[in-house]
Structures are given as C-alpha cells and as structure tokens.
C-alpha cells in the first residue's frame, strides 16, 4: 500500500550532498517535512532551504552515538515525531587491501556499518512511537563482492544483514524496515572514486551494464517510492534483481571476472602511487571532522 507522504517527518543522514540531498528534495516535493543530518552545516542549511516546508538541519557524525542521538532528539523536539528514517550516510575508498590507506579503509566500515547501527539505535524509539519506517541505503556492492572495494562491500553487506535483523525485531511493534540497493549513481562520491586510477580500472573493467553510471533523478524517485510503499527491497536499476536472485554463485564467479582487474589496479597504483583516501567532498568532510578542522 502506497502512503501519502504529506506531513510525514523524514530524517535523512548524509543529507548535505549527493543521494541524500537529492532524495530530501524529492520527498519535500511530495509534501514531506525534512530533517537533514550531516557533517557540513552550510551545505545542510542550503539543502534545507531548497527543500522548504520548514525543513531543518542538524550537524552530527553518525559514528558518534551521543551526537546522532542528540540529533534524533532534536528532530523529535522540533517536529513532534519521526515517521521515516533514511540511513544514507556513507563514505568510500578504492584500493586493494594491500595498497589501500588503512585509516580510510577502516573508516568506510566505521561510517557505513557502525554509523548505520548507531543511527538506527538513535531513531528507533521514535519510529516505534509513530509506527514508522526505516530505510537502509545499502548498495549493489552487497550483492557482488568486487575487487578494490573490499571495505565498501563489507560495510554494505553488513548494513543489509543488520537491517534484515532489525526488521524481524520490530515487526511486532508496527515498524517497517526496507533496504535499497543502488548501483553507480552520478554523485560526488562516485565521481571522486574515478580520481584514483586503481579504482577506475576496477570499475570500468566490469562487464556492461555493471560499469555504467546512472543518473540521480530516477534513483531518488525509486527511493521515494520505496518510502511511500514501505518497500522491503528496492533495486536500482531494476535489473539488479537478477544479481539478487543469483547472488549465491557470485563469490565463486567474481574472482575470475575481476581478479585480472585487481592486478591491473595494483600495477597502475605502483606506477602512480597516491594515498587512496576517502572519495569526494563528503569524504573530505569526514576527514576534516576527524582532524578537528
């Protein structure tokens, strides 16, 4: 059943840029009231103004339980309720385990997995009160383990399993839980990945259409539809259902498909060594937050 989103209070993490910001604007256009959470106060405020309809912004690091819990309490105080949580905050880096920057590699898991857990923990009491909906943004990376993306694949597989577990825990409380699996969406994070030759080789060497970059607008429409319908699984693009249905064989097949890409990626990195840090402006914001800038 599709629900009218008019007046629904939606809390989105990672809302300063990219998919989170675009989804906020899409949901605002459908009448929702937006609570935007992220690391960049100026960008968040600009997005809140773009959303209109009384949208507000909170600055919080999702890996900081006290900060994200305070943000959730602030949203409840400002709007009176939280009807929908979209756990979208995420970062990425490229590089095989041998060549990746250890700090950035580990940070991907901290933000994407532990950040989602802490976000859900903060918002869940409010979702129980409203019998609301929690949408976890995972990735096609949860379906196919890819070379040069070990930490990202691990983090997205982790949030998928986590959200499935939470669904079982809160179903009797009237809370719905869904998982979204976007592929390569044309955001700053994905474009930032292409700054690293090692990652570019691994991504663009994938078979078509797995190497294709998809536009933001249809992706956020699919996510907004998922919120309205409280959909359990959302694939974008829709052909990912094929990978979902055949994921049992993926770990056995992918080494033969992408193993050669890992060798090429490491060779490219050796020829032009560069610290493989977090990608895009969002990654830079996370780096700045941890360094205290």
Oligomeric composition of the shown chains:
single chain
* Rg, Å, rounded: 18 Å
What is the CATH class name? Alpha Beta
- The overall average pLDDT, rounded, is 91
Walk across the major sheet and give the strand order. 3-2-1-4-5-6-7
Question: Domains counted in the coordinates: how many?
Answer: 1
How much strand? 5-15%
Continuous helix count: 11
Distance from N terminus to C terminus (CA atoms, Å) equals 46 Å
Structural class from helices and strands? alpha/beta
Largest sheet: 7 strands, parallel
Q: In one word, what is the shape?
A: globular
As for the CATH topology, it is Rossmann fold
CATH superfamily: NAD(P)-binding Rossmann-like Domain
- Unreliable stretches: none
Compact description:
This protein is of the alpha/beta class. The protein has helices spanning 18-29, 41-51, 65-79, 102-130, 150-170, 188-193, 197-204, 216-229, 240-245, 250-271, 280-291, and strands spanning 9-13, 33-38, 56-59, 84-87, 133-137, 176-182, 233-236.
Description:
The chain is of the alpha/beta class. The chain has one domain (9-291): NAD(P)-binding Rossmann-like Domain (Rossmann fold). It contains eleven helices and seven strands. A seven-stranded parallel beta sheet has the order 3-2-1-4-5-6-7, with helices on both faces. The termini are far apart. Keywords: Oxidoreductase. Belongs to the short-chain dehydrogenases/reductases (SDR) family. It comes from Spongisporangium articulatum. This is Short-chain dehydrogenase/reductase.
């Amino acid at each position: 059943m599709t629900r009218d989103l008019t007046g629904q209070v939606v809390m989105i993490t990672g809302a300063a840029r990219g998919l989170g910001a675009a989804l906020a604007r899409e949901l605002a256009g459908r009448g929702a009231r937006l609570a935007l959470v992220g690391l960049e106060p100026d960008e968040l405020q600009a997005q809140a103004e773009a959303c209109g309809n009384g949208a507000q912004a909170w600055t919080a690091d999702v890996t900081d339980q006290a900060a994200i819990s305070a943000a959730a309490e602030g949203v409840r105080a400002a709007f009176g309720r939280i009807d929908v949580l979209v756990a979208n905050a995420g970062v990425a880096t490229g590089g095989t385990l041998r060549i990746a920057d250890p700090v950035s590699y580990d940070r991907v898991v901290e933000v994407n997995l532990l950040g989602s857990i802490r976000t859900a923990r903060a918002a869940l009491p409010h979702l129980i009160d409203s019998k609301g909906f929690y949408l976890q943004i995972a990735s096609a990376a949860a379906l196919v383990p890819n070379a040069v993306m070990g930490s990202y694949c691990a983090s997205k597989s982790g949030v998928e399993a986590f959200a499935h577990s939470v669904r079982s825990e809160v179903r009797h409380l009237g809370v719905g839980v869904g998982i979204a699996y976007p592929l390569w969406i044309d955001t700053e994070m994905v474009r930032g990945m292409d700054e690293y030759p090692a990652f570019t080789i691994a991504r663009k060497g994938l078979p078509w259409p797995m190497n294709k970059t998809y536009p933001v607008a249809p992706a956020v429409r699919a996510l907004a539809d998922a919120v309205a319908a409280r959909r359990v699984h959302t694939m974008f693009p829709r052909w990912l259902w094929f990978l979902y249905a055949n994921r049992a064989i993926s770990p056995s097949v992918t080494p033969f498909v992408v193993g050669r890409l890992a060798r090429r990626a490491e060779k490219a990195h050796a020829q032009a060594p560069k610290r493989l840090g977090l990608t895009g402006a969002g990654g830079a914001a996370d780096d700045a937050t941890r360094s205290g800038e």
